[in-house]
């Protein structure tokens, strides 16, 4: 379930800030009650982070079954192996909290997306999304483009964050189904992320939560 090389995401909640910071690292080794990770990199700034002993996180990783697993952890030591590592507590597999992918927050949003395929059987095109989540995206393909289930696509999305920054997200997606949007003749195609860097997935999740907050604020006005 938790293999060497697994990508791990760490969420750090600061006492004086409501928002959390997210960091990406990889599992280097593990023992019964501890894990060894390489030095985390801040997902937003891409800078290596250094933490004192006792720093607490919520950690998560994607298991072999495709589900996300979360657990509470804290820094207990820094050591030198083949590379410098940080030692974190590990509560054991029985204490992991399993979160199925369908529990990703999905929001309706229109963002730009470029689509092509590795086999060059598809003419590359740009369009917009209908919705997005950490697990996949629904797009509105041009009327002259026919996408079929099980087709593998390369996707490039442009995410505008509240900070004013733009993130370019690269992912490989699997076409699941196409159907008409209710009450119209517009066709929507659902695509599941098959290969996506975990840092990109975390950015998408953050974008979705930002959009949720924007919607709530607009409703209060």
TrEMBL record:
Residues covered by the PilZ domain: 100-210
Pfam families (alphabetical): PilZ, PilZNR
InterPro entries, A to Z: PilZ_domain (IPR009875), Split_barrel_FMN-bd (IPR012349), T3SS_YcgR_PilZN (IPR009926)
Alphabetized UniProt keyword annotations: Bacterial flagellum, c-di-GMP, Cell projection, Cilium, Flagellum, Nucleotide-binding
Domain Type III secretion system flagellar brake protein YcgR PilZN: 3-91
Domain of life: Bacteria
Name listed for the protein in its UniProt record: Flagellar brake protein
Organism placement in taxonomy: Bacteria, Bacillati, Bacillota, Bacilli, Bacillales
């Amino acid at each position: 379930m938790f293999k060497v090389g697994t990508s791990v995401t760490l969420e750090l909640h600061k006492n004086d800030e409501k928002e959390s910071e997210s960091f990406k690292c990889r599992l280097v080794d593990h023992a019964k009650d501890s894990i060894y990770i390489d030095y985390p990199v801040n997902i937003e700034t891409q800078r290596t982070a250094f933490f004192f002993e006792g720093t607490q996180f919520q950690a998560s990783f994607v298991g072999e079954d495709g589900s996300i697993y979360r657990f509470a952890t804290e820094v207990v030591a820094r050591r030198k192996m083949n590379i410098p590592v940080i030692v974190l507590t590990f509560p054991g597999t029985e204490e992991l909290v399993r979160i199925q992918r369908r529990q990703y927050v999905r929001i309706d949003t229109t963002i730009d997306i470029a689509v092509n395929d590795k086999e060059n059987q598809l003419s590359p095109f740009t369009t917009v999304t209908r919705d997005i989540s950490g697990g996949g995206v629904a797009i509105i393909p041009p009327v002259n483009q026919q996408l079929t289930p099980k087709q593998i696509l390369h996707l490039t999305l442009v995410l505008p964050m509240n900070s004013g920054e733009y993130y370019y997200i690269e992912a490989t997606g699997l076409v699941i189904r196409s159907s008409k949007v209710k009450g119209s003749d517009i066709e929507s195609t659902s695509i599941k992320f098959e290969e996506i860097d975990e840092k990109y997935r975390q950015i998408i999740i953050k974008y979705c939560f930002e959009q949720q907050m924007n919607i709530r604020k607009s409703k209060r006005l």
